[in-house]
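Exercise: predict the structure of this protein bound to adenosine-5'-diphosphate.
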Amino acid sequence: MVIALHDVWKTYTMGKVRFDALKGINLEIRRGDFAAIAGPSGSGKTTMVNMIGLVDAPTRGEVEIDGRRTGGLSRRELTRMRQDVIGFIFQSFNLLPTLNVFENVELPLLLGRRGSRSAALDKNARRERVEQLLEDVGLADKRRNLPSELSGGQQQRAAIARSLVNQPKIVIADEPTANLDSENARRVLDLMKKENAEYGATFIFSTHDKTIWEMANRVVFLHDGIIESEAARQ
Ligand code: ADP
Ligand code: MG
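Solution:
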């Protein structure tokens, strides 16, 4: 089991008002799954991917990643786990504004810990990997541009390339195709599928788009913070 959620609750507090965004989620994701979290706006998709990506901690319950319970880990251990195991694609991209597209995509390779797979790559191997990904997402001609010079959809694709560059075991994406036209959405999904098939990376992504969730081998339907149903196909 590469990811497991055990009775996960998330309660947001705004002054005196409390709101349960997740209400006792139980979920198991297997290695190599290509899993979608589907549901309408406000159903808890972002909250749930943030729990799985160790971006935010549950109010109650336990998140297990790569066979490790994460509840007792220090901030440093959590950061290390995020760097080593997880590629996270934020809905808001989080590209660094002063680095160009190539440098943004290369960055996780430079942050890799000594001894990790990515740290073993020399400069030429890094360049090859980054350029291949930029080609796959259709941004080869934008590699010297700054994020501010890109459209929303192009920034989205750069963020996706960055999340995949060091071949993380787990890739988590919050609505990865929300800003893309259908051609680029298809391109991004094809790339995710290719990484899934070639490296056995586990993908879990939220979406409210039916054409996207139909490409998943598992779909978890969220409604008001509860898993309403699940579908699986071989
Ligand atoms: P989705 O991604 O499916 O649209 P979210 O996880 O963003 O859903 O939000 C689920 C619910 O939690 C919504 O009702 C939203 O208003 C609420 N919510 C999300 N983030 C916060 C927050 N930081 N503070 C208070 N309420 C929040
Ligand atoms: Mg959301």
